[in-house]
Amino acid sequence: KQEVTQIPAALSVPEGENLVLNCSFTDSAIYNLQWFRQDPGKGLTSLLLIQSSQREQTSGRLNASLDKSSGRSTLYIAASQPGDSATYLCAVRWGAQKLVFGQGTRLTINP
Amino acid sequence: KAGVTQTPRYLIKTRGQQVTLSCSPISGHRSVSWYQQTPGQGLQFLFEYFSETQRNKGNFPGRFSGRQFSNSRSEMNVSTLELGDSALYLCASSVGQSTYSGNTIYFGEGSWLTVV
Fold first, then answer.
1. pLDDT one digit per residue (tens) for chain A, 111 residues
2. What is the DSSP letter of B70?
3. Exposed, middle or buried, B34 (CB in 10 Å: 0-12/13-18/19+)?
4. How far is CA A79 from CA A58, A60, A102, A103, B44, in A?
5. For the residues of A48-71, what is the DSSP string, one character each?
6. pLDDT single digits (tens) B41-90
7. 3-class DSSP state of A73
8. How far away is chain A from the Cα of B93, in angstroms, using its nearest Cα?
9. DSSP per-residue string spanning A17-55
10. How many other C-beta atoms lie within 10 A of the C-beta of residue B71?
11. Which residues pair with A20 in a beta bridge?
12. In chain A, what residues touch B99 (CB-CB under 8 Å)?
């Protein structure tokens, strides 16, 4: 069964720290992997899309890496800010199948 | 340009009723997907439409249905509502069909459905 797991479920760090969010998936034959951010009561905002042929993608203070062989992706956030507080979701697409989401990591940045 | 627009944003329905939710994708996007989000189950895929045809379907009962119009706008319908249908329903759009690996998908703000 194709599954996506995000650990930890919640993370709290002081402002200014660099941090890493983890995503693991069960089948390495992925089409792509996408990281999203969700603010309370809101929809999802796409952060980064990594295609299966790529190893990483960067956008501003965010860097996402992909290691298909180990079934892992990480989202690195540099110099965290209180505005980064949100739930971060990892989603994987396999072939023509649906997008499968992890349960998310709820991130709190403390001023 | 305008993002994905979902209406209504909030609604309350009674058990046994039916509900229709609407989604207008980003201009030029032809693929629309629907997801259900609950605290217990997280985000679960309902179905995807591309060029007015259902391309993928998740593991939901037949009470959940959808359609897409020629202008790419989509609706989803839930009949005979149950308490467990209370959730945030999210619509997402992308330029091409999901099988195209280059697609980034963009989500709307969602429709909050409460069944009482």
1. 889 999 999 999 999 999 999 999 999 889 899 999 999 888 999 999 999 999 999 999 999 999 999 999 999 999 999 999 999 999 998 876 678 999 999 999 999
2. T
3. buried
4. 15, 11, 25, 25, 32
5. EEEETT-SEEEETTEEEEEETTTT
6. 899 999 999 989 998 889 999 999 999 999 999 999 999 999 999 999 99
7. strand
8. 12
9. --EEEEEEES-S--SEEEEEEE-TTS-EEEEEEEETT-S
10. 10
11. A76
12. 31, 95-96
Q: A4, A102 in Cβ contact below 8 A?
A: yes
The residue type found at B36 is Q
Query: Dihedral of CA B39/A82/A35/A26: which sign?
Result: negative
Residue B25 one-letter amino acid? P
How many angstroms separate the CA atoms of B75 and B70, rounded? 12
Residue B81 has which token pair?
Answer: 């509502």
Strand pairing of B74-78 and B19-24? antiparallel
Q: Are B66 and B46 spatial neighbours (Cβ–Cβ below 8 Å)?
A: yes
Residue A92 Cα to chain centre, angstroms: 10
Query: Would you tell me which residues 75-94 of chain A have a C-beta closer than 8 angstroms to some C-beta of chain B?
Result: 89, 91, 93
Q: How do A32-38 and A86-93 pair as beta strands?
A: antiparallel
Query: A84-93, B1-10, B77-86, B107-116 — which is least confidently predicted?
Result: B1-10
SS3 A104: coil
Contact A46 B108 (CB under 8 A): no
Residue whose tokens read 């995000």:
A6
